[in-house]
Amino acid sequence: MSTDPIGVVKRELLVRQLDSWTPAALHRSRRVTFAQAYAGADGGVADAALRVFAEFADLLRGRRTTALTIGPADDHDLSARHAAAQSELPDGLTAHLVPGGVERLPVGLKAAGAAGAPLLVYLDGTGGPGPAPEILAAVAGGRPAELLLVLDPPVWSGADHRRLLTEAGLPLVTEVELVAETPARSEVLVFGTAAGKRLDAFKNALWAVDEYAGVRYRDPADPEGHLLDISLAPHPGPLRRELLTRLATVGAASVTELRQFTAERTVYRPADTNRVLLALLAAGLVRREPEAGRLAGDVTITTAPTP
């Protein structure tokens, strides 16, 4: 198993996402699919993901659950680890290893009968190009569908990929850059879905992972590019700047609108919005209407006039 710090964070984040997705998907449907595809070495993520299903053996009974893993044909280590993990899988889960590149994902999803039922896809495209539109369209065929996508920063273009994900049917998109200090490098992790509750679940998982030495988050939307420690109470500085910039652009916004902005356009959780807005109100940097009462979703926030 890889000791690469970014790989460790990706592995724990996927495991946490599966922990919340699996019971919800199985309660929703008798047919669910999890798929993972790797452009290069998986770093031990693939078999760790498969082992999550052992925790839900009781829910898997009587249901059709498929786990699809796609990896390079010459990755013999992945083949060996997949075989070992498969021997430990509970009844009700069928696992397949498909040799090849990420471009085989649409064919694999079709063979698994993934369309029209809950689907979670983890696609690690580091070392390769961004996913083609047909791959995103195949993922969006799940009902509901969600995608965890990892890319190299030079490949990621926030505006372009947001448009592609939205056009494919995954309109709720957020991203975070995972930054390692030694050796200095980074990867961009993108989450796309059409379900607001699943976006919230991803954000909660993002900040709940254990803090690993040498890895921090960077909000791609933060013009100052500050690095953030992984914490249940992340430093509010970037969100403070981004909310003020948003208000300067739109003039006025409800708390609900600002929470949605936070969820989709920043690395922060919707709940962090209220925490930052209360600080901005206390500092006199924004105003609210009505002026008193709970900071509910229908409260309107505006930038305070410059004295």
Plain-language structure description:
The chain is α/β, with parallel strands linked by helices and 307 residues long. It folds into 2 domains: 224 residues, Rossmann fold, CATH 3.40.50; 67 residues, Arc Repressor Mutant, subunit A (Orthogonal Bundle). Helix content is 40%, strand content 23%. The chain has 11 helices and 12 strands. The chain has a 9-stranded mixed sheet with strand order 3-2-1-4-5-7-6-8-9, with helices on both faces. Strands 10-12-11 form a 3-stranded antiparallel sheet. Helix 6 links the parallel strand 4 and strand 5. The radius of gyration is 20 Å and the shape is globular. The mean pLDDT is 92. It comes from Plantactinospora endophytica. This is MarR family transcriptional regulator.
What does the secondary structure layout of this molecule look like, with pairings?
Elements: H1 5-28, E1 31-38, H2 45-51, H3 57-60, E2 64-71, H4 76-86, E3 93-99, H5 105-112, E4 119-124, H6 133-139, E5 145-151, H7 158-168, E6 172-180, E7 185-193, H8 196-208, E8 215-218, E9 227-228, H9 237-250, E10 252-254, H10 255-265, H11 270-282, E11 286-289, E12 300-303
Parallel strand pairs: 1-2, 1-4, 2-3, 4-5
Antiparallel strand pairs: 5-7, 6-7, 6-8, 8-9, 10-12, 11-12
Helix pairs in contact: 1-2, 1-8, 2-4, 5-6, 6-7, 10-11
